[in-house]
Design a protein that fits this description.
The structure holds two protein chains of two kinds. Chain A is mainly β. Chain A contains no helices and eleven strands. In chain A, a hairpin with a 2-residue loop joins strand 6 and strand 7. Chain A is globular and about 45 Å long. By secondary structure, chain B is mainly beta. Classes of the chains: A mainly beta, B mainly beta. The interface between A and B is medium-sized, with 25 and 25 residues.
Chain lengths: 113, 113
């Protein structure tokens, strides 16, 4: 039973446009969410996180939105750049319950110049 | 600041053998987590070590075991290797028991023949 779901295996976006990556979760205990980016032959790199007390967190070109009632979060990248092409993983955990990170299967983003 | 380093980068073993994978945590970090990433999947939590004690375990059999040393480096040991153990093994370090953003190494690619 997948607790964190990324339903789009891949996404193609033109350079300069917005990339929106989506993630859904089922466990109501999750209160901390993260996005990681992974290039081939490298480990995942932390991008941005959000706790459940917020509904938005922004860091430069990256913004994460959290909709707790829908159990949905999204990562917006604006503007998209060719160097953003990678696999993006959504992850969730419960800080209060000290549970481990649970990852989605990832979405492969291709930014076309 | 030294990042997370893992060794070896690649390893080929046969069924029934045993393997030890190594991880040096990022400087200042005292928590190490190990993940298994099968092809097309997200990282799956194996276990976590905090101050040399196991601090949580995922749904992996006892033949997956680990150690953390006083310098916070860590080992993952897998006995009686099976074909399904073929995967990328990722180590991540962080500070403290709570799941603050974890920083990943580049992984060890383990192939079982």
């Amino acid at each position: 039973d997948q607790q964190v779901k990324q339903n789009s295996p891949s996404l193609s976006v033109q350079e300069g446009r917005i990339s929106i990556l989506n993630c859904d979760y089922t466990n109501s205990m999750f209160d901390y969410f993260l996005w990681y980016k992974k290039y081939p032959a490298e480990g995942p790199t932390f991008l941005i996180s959000i706790s459940s007390i917020k509904d938005k967190n922004e860091d430069g070109r990256f913004t994460v939105f959290l909709n707790k009632s829908a159990k949905h979060l999204s990562l917006h990248i604006v503007p998209s750049q060719p160097g953003d092409s990678a696999v993006y993983f959504c992850a969730a955990s419960s800080l209060s319950g000290n549970t481990p990170l649970v990852f989605g299967k990832g979405t492969r983003l291709s930014v076309i110049a | 600041e030294t990042g997370v380093t893992q060794s070896p980068t690649h390893l080929i073993k046969t069924r029934g053998q045993q393997v030890t994978l190594r991880c040096s945590s990022q400087s200042g970090h005292n928590t190490v987590s190990w993940y298994q990433q099968a092809l097309g999947q997200g990282p799956q939590f194996i276990f976590q070590y905090y101050r040399e004690e196991e601090n949580g375990r995922g749904n992996f059999p006892p033949r997956f075991s680990g150690l953390q040393f006083p310098n916070y480096s860590s080992e993952l040991n897998v006995n009686a290797l099976e074909l399904d153990d073929s995967a990328l093994y990722l180590c991540a370090s962080s500070f403290g028991q709570r799941n603050q953003p974890q920083h990943f190494g580049d992984g060890t690619r383990l192939s079982i023949l």
